[in-house]
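Example for tutorial group B:
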């Protein structure tokens, strides 16, 4: 036999045993080759011909557009995308985006080691956040260096991560990351579709990897009846899989799997979303992902060619969930960061609600989303989402209104929820003046994870700084001219119940009546935390106030009680962005509970513009169901309330029309509202 024939036969035999040949055979076995358009693949005789036919088919078919823009007119890369695309060319990749990009090697990429103690970094490395940036850079420049880099990274990842021993234990194979990859990788085909570097071998590698990843994920995904609490991970995994099946109906059983996942999603909605629309984990940041996710399931059903019978309650809950965002957002559009939530930038709530105006024709949403320029102003100022325990009150619906949101759940512990019942946030004049502490980090710094989850770093009352339980209940609420009221109770400890009644007075002030009842004894602390800045604590007068030179300041004073009350400084931190924290003033009003008789804190809060000062406050009980408030020896209010009848009223014991020096101060204050 000639040497050339021997070498050719050896090469052919080696090719048949190569991973590439195995991948092609495995891929073809998972495709439905009877579909129209795949005739050339069926009739091809050699592996090379089959690959070429597959390449031609997938480069030209347009079953489902995966990009949300016209590839001929791609959007400009933002600053972060520019950094990521440039970094990728040097093999510098992001993991968890809060950390700087990291060099991951030269000819051999490191997909295993974690340069940080935070597990989120290595998990999120395997989500390939930077790949769309590479794709956009390629569409803009048509520079093949971006396509070559993507092909190199794809082959490096597949060759390393698909080893059987790697698939068993590697963090990159967590279900959440696997789901996000099988939704992302098809999109990369659209970015590099016209690149000569996206050749037949690359296509086979990509499709084979997707088939293996999707099969692995489908085996591991939750199935009805669910055996553990369902959360955002499962929803994302199911939706990601449905994006994959919509992108590739050529894979066998794609439609059947999509139907099964739709069944899962509908059943899961009743678990993750409460009857009032809030999510069961009670975290605003995560909540804002669910309405879009559940609507996306309906869109993906259509893209998969499935006429799925979504029940009426499914859409009703989505609408309630969007309404909840309108209710719990601060007037400036930031959101409460209860639990593992983040403050977000101003306007977040309005932009979120505005996304759904075409789907739900709601004039009140339009009013909120447009900052009052369009639509119809909501009628009520007090709202209570009783199932979740989110209660809100506001002086109006304008962007500078006085606004308070309280949390008081009746739910079992969940990972992202904190034990912070009856805590609240406060804003005024378009500025947050009291916000929750946030969460800072998920893993890698256990002591800080624990610190931010402690009950006493929230605006609530603790006994001996112990963790609270969550057995919350709304008692009553009322709305009358000049007065809004919310009253709620939490069985904070087996031996102590906490009732908090909030009064919003004349759209200017907040009065809090905290009542502690039960046989429990120990040290009661009414905790408060200011926003970062300067503050002064007057321990003799029980007054705490911020003294920032610009913006809104906050004045807080509690009234002396039956027993001695002290004002004590505490340690304060706040985190509004993952892995970032800063100190802030924190304090507590403290009294001892030495017997079974009830105790109370009666506290006054006033957000103040720069020219406004408070030099005198009197607040006292004036009989059963009656409080008397006097501010600066001029404003004199009587608050009357009846918890049984669930009613309240405000009487002004002064003439608001009176002229004079003091009146001019309030005229200026009112003009700012």
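The residue assignment follows.
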């Amino acid at each position: 036999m000639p040497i050339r024939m021997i070498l050719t036969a050896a090469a052919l035999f080696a090719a048949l045993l190569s991973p590439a040949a195995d991948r092609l055979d495995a891929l073809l076995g998972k495709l439905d080759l009877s579909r129209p358009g795949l005739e050339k693949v069926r009739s091809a005789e050699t592996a090379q011909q089959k690959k070429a036919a597959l390449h031609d088919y997938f480069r030209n078919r347009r079953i489902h557009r995966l990009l949300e823009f016209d590839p001929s007119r791609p959007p400009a890369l933002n600053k972060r995308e520019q950094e990521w695309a440039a970094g990728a060319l040097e093999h510098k990749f992001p993991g968890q985006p809060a950390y700087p990009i990291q060099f991951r090697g030269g000819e051999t990429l490191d997909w295993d080691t974690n340069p940080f103690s935070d597990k989120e970094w290595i998990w999120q490395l395997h989500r390939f956040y930077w790949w769309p940036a590479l794709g956009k850079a390629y569409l803009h420049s048509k520079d093949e260096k971006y396509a070559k880099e993507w092909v190199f990274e794809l082959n490096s990842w597949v060759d390393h991560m698909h080893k059987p021993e790697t698939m068993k234990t590697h963090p990159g194979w967590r279900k959440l990351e696997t789901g996000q990859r099988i939704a992302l990788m098809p999109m990369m085909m659209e970015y590099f579709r016209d690149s000569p570097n996206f050749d037949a071998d690359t296509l086979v590698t990509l499709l084979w990897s997707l088939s293996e990843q999707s099969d692995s994920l489908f085996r591991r995904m939750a199935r009805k009846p669910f055996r553990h609490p369902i959360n955002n991970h499962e929803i994302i995994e199911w939706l990601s899989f449905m994006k994959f099946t919509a992108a590739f109906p050529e894979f066998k059983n794609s439609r059947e799997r999509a139907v099964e996942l739709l069944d899962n999603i509908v059943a899961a909605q009743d678990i993750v979303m409460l009857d009032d629309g809030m999510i069961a984990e009670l975290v605003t940041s995560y909540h804002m992902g669910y309405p879009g996710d559940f609507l996306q399931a309906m869109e993906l059903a259509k893209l998969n060619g499935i006429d799925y019978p979504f029940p009426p309650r499914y859409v009703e809950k989505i609408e309630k969930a969007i309404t909840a965002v309108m209710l719990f957002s601060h007037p400036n559009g930031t959101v409460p960061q209860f639990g593992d939530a983040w403050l977000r930038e101003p306007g977040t709530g309005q932009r979120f609600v505005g996304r759904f105006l075409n789907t739900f024709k709601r004039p009140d949403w339009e009013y909120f989303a447009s900052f009052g320029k369009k639509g119809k102003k909501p009628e009520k100022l007090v709202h209570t989402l009783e199932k979740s325990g989110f209660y809100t009150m506001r002086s109006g619906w304008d962007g500078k209104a006085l606004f308070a949101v309280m949390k008081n759940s009746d739910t079992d512990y969940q990972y992202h929820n904190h034990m912070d019942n009856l805590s609240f946030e406060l804003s005024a004049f378009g500025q947050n003046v009291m916000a929750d502490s946030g969460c800072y980090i998920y893993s890698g710094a256990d002591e800080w994870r624990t610190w931010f989850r402690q009950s006493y770093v929230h605006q609530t009352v603790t006994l001996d700084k112990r963790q609270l339980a969550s057995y919350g209940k709304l008692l009553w609420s009322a709305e009358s001219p000049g007065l809004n009221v919310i009253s709620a109770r939490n069985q904070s400890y087996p031996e102590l119940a906490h009732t908090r009644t909030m009064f919003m007075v004349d759209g200017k002030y907040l009065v809090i009546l905290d009542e502690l009842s039960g046989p429990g004894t120990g040290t009661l602390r009414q905790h408060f935390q200011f926003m970062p800045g300067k503050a002064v604590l007057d321990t003799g007068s029980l007054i705490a106030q911020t003294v920032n030179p610009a913006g809104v300041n906050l004045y807080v004073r509690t009234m002396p009680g039956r027993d001695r009350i002290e004002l004590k400084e505490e340690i304060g931190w706040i985190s509004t962005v993952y892995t970032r924290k800063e100190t802030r003033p924190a304090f507590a009003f403290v009294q001892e509970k030495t017997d079974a008789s009830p105790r109370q804190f009666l506290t006054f809060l006033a957000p103040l513009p720069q020219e406004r000062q408070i030099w005198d406050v009197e607040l006292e009980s004036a009989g059963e169901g009656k409080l008397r408030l006097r501010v600066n020896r001029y404003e004199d209010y009587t608050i009357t309330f009846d918890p049984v009848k669930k009613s309240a009223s405000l009487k002004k014991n002064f003439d608001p029309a009176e002229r004079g020096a003091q009146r001019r101060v309030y005229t200026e204050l009112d003009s700012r509202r």
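Confidence is low (pLDDT under 50) at residues 1-17, 667-673. Compare this with the pattern of hydrophobic and polar residues in the output above.
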